[in-house]
Amino acid sequence: MSENEDIKAMSFEHALAALEQIVDDLERGDVPLDQSIRIYERGEALKDHCDRLLKAAEAKVEKIRLSREGKPIGVEPLDPE
């Protein structure tokens, strides 16, 4: 199993918390260079995972269409392309 294989099973919230911890660790500046590179790469994988989860969630979000009287009449994509 690759070093970042566990990321695929993470929820958005868990992946975001892990990414925030990496940012904090790197900003502190007391992490050895080789470890900084490794956790930076993990951060990139976490960011990509969060992006994929957000795009999947956005694809599921729909906007409610209203009639002239203000009554719901259906749904449409939130951001039609």
UniProtKB/TrEMBL annotation:
Enzyme class name: hydrolase
The keyword Manganese appears for this protein: no
Q: Name one GO biological process term.
A: DNA catabolic process
Q: Name one GO molecular function term.
A: exodeoxyribonuclease VII activity
One Gene Ontology cellular component annotation held by this UniProt entry: exodeoxyribonuclease VII complex
Any Pfam family from its record, for instance, is Exonuc_VII_S
The keyword Calcium is annotated on this UniProt entry: no
Indicate where this protein is primarily found.
Answer: cytoplasm
Q: Keywords, A to Z?
A: Cytoplasm, Exonuclease, Hydrolase, Nuclease
Describe its function. Answer: Bidirectionally degrades single-stranded DNA into large acid-insoluble oligonucleotides, which are then degraded further into small acid-soluble oligonucleotides.
Q: Which PANTHER family match?
A: EXODEOXYRIBONUCLEASE 7 SMALL SUBUNIT (PTHR34137)
Q: What is this protein called?
A: Exodeoxyribonuclease 7 small subunit
Q: Which organism is it from?
A: Tianweitania sediminis
